[in-house]
């Protein structure tokens, strides 16, 4: 569950940059959003692989 908390915290940490980029047209915030989304993708893939490994171990 710790990884899930990391995932939630990462999404919540991006909220301000999403607002700055979409509503205030801040280009630097867009760069931070893209980096954060890449980090989110990597974390989600890692979680996905761990879940698959656990699932396969129980067979």
The mean pLDDT is 95
- Which residues sit in consecutive blocks of at least 5 with pLDDT less than 50? none
Shape by Cα distribution: elongated
Question: Please, what is the oligomeric state?
Answer: single chain
Structural domains: how many: 1
Helix content: over 70%
| Main beta sheet strand tally, sense and closure | none
How does the helix and strand content classify structurally?
A: mainly alpha
Q: Percent of residues in beta strands?
A: under 5%
Question: What's the total helix number?
Answer: 3
- Rounded Rg: 15 Å
Number of strands: 0
Distance between the termini: 22 Å
Could you explain the architecture of this structure?
The structure is a single chain. The chain is mainly alpha-helical and 59 residues long. It has one domain. Helix content is 90%, strand content 0%. Helix 2 packs antiparallel against helix 3.
């Amino acid at each position: 569950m710790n990884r899930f908390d990391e995932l939630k915290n990462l999404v919540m940490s991006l909220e301000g940059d999403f607002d700055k980029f979409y509503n205030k047209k801040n280009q630097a915030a867009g760069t931070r959003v893209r980096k954060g989304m890449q980090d989110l993708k990597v974390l989600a893939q890692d979680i996905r692989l761990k879940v698959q490994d656990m699932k396969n171990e129980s067979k």
